[in-house]
Amino acid sequence: MISPISALIFDFDGLIMDTESPEFETWQEMFREFGAELKFEEWVACLGTSAAAFDAAGILYQRTGITTDNHTLWTEQKRRSIQKANQLQPLPGVVHLLEEAKSAGMVLAVASSSPRAWVQGHLERLDLCSYFRFILTKEDVQTVKPAPDLYLKAIQMLQVEPAQAIALEDSPNGIKAARQAGLFCIAIPNPISIRLDLSEANLILKSLTELNLQQLAEIVTHHNNGHSPVKIKV
């Protein structure tokens, strides 16, 4: 018999806050200012992983012949997207789940491929830092998602076994990282990631409001003990 679920590990971008929609919208705005269109399929490679996966300058040169560099483009894009992101609130169900987990005595962590200043800054703005025992970001590991390093470090620091934790994700890269670390992974797509293949997740929810913590824990515990299918979709 596997021990009960005692930990939740949250992704940040697109899971706690929908930072991904304004991110893509800002890139589209910038490309249009250069007289070009950015395709979703070109940008989405960086979702849930390193920004280096998106070669904005290279794509722009192919479309327009205009020479620039990624540092310049990313600096301007970040300036614009920060203004939009600072207006965002937690996605539906996030705060309620945090409260439920806190009341149940569970240990929580964030595991994000984004920079610490970005993640912690928003969590502080939203007054959510106190819920998490650890906030792990790209600075804490050598390799970000889809490598499992962030999740492996999270369970190590939380002092739990993989079967005692649930990973909450929204992107294929994040799901792959969680599954490789041995965690049961729940995918909650946002308006951006709903267009992607999230089928590697064990459970896909439309929103965190669909199930309460007890229901989630029961599903995962039954799965870990071999009493439910590997793939569940609500």
UniProtKB/TrEMBL annotation:
Pfam families, per the entry: HAD_2 (PF13419)
Membrane-crossing residue ranges in chain numbering: none
Domain of life where this protein originates: Bacteria
InterPro entries, per database record: HAD-like_sf, HAD-SF_hydro_IA, HAD_2, HAD_sf, PGP-like_dom2
Protein name per the record: HAD family hydrolase
CDD domains recorded: HAD_BPGM-like (cd16423)
